[in-house]
Amino acid sequence: MLKIGEVRLVAKNLARFGELGDFAWGLVLQKLIKMQGFAEREEYCPWKQELQPLLADAFDKQILSPESSADSELFLNFVKDFGFFNLPILLNLYLDLKRHHRPNEISKENQDVLKEILPAEVLDKLPNSEAVIEQLRRFKRNFQRELLADKIPQQIESSLGLEIFNALRGTTKWERYDSVSEIVKT
């Protein structure tokens, strides 16, 4: 996997290195660089803080392949839909849904994640995986909207809710590392 410094080097020297499309993830890297540049300081760089750990985890768990251009396109679509956040549970669920036409064909683990945030009667009525992905987009959007309105989202203690909360909290200037239950109490 490319390290952040190597990605920066390639990005800064595109003309010298030729097209990034020479390897499976090249074109996707170009598109991601256009979407989000690099921060001057690594501690604020979404590439270093968010995408690099997300990709490393996905490659380690073999849910994405560095040799697959199809996987790179799926990852690009995930980032377009959910942003530059380290959301491994959501990525795993998203990829599973994209690779299966029906939601009941996904792994048991991912079905359990869905059941935490969507009632069974809603899940049963969704015709295909794309409809479930649209529900995930709505879930994240509504979750974020409630946080911005100083409300506590209903599913904040679900695995996906905790993951999204921690990703959003990580992009703020909160210095405290309280648990979610401590934050909810106050």
Structural commentary:
With 186 residues, the protein is mainly alpha-helical. The protein folds into 2 domains: 1-68, no CATH class; 87-186, no CATH class. Helix content is 63%, strand content 0%. It has helices at 4-12, 14-17, 26-35, 46-60, 69-82, 88-99, 108-117, 120-125, 129-148, 159-170, 180-185. Helix 6 crosses helix 7 (108-117). The protein is globular and about 45 Å long. The termini are far apart. Residues 8-21 have low confidence and may be disordered.
What fraction of residues sit in β-strands? under 5%
Question: Main β-sheet: number of strands, strand sense, barrel status?
Answer: none
Shape: globular
Radius of gyration: 18 Å
Helix content: 55-70%
Counting DSSP E segments of at least 2 residues, the number of strands comes to 0
How far apart the termini lie comes to 42 Å
Tally of alpha and pi helices: 11
**Quaternary structure type:** single chain
The helix-and-strand class reads mainly alpha
Order of helices and strands: HHHHHHHHHHH
Mean pLDDT: 83
Number of separate structural domains: 2
Unreliable residue runs: 8-21
Structural topology:
Elements (H helix, E strand, L loop, with lengths): L3 H9 L1 H4 L8 H10 L10 H15 L8 H14 L5 H12 L8 H10 L2 H6 L3 H20 L10 H12 L9 H6 L1
Helix pairs in contact: 6-7
Structural features:
2 domains, globular, mainly alpha, 0% strand, 186 residues
In summary, what is this structure?
The chain has 186 residues and is mostly helical.
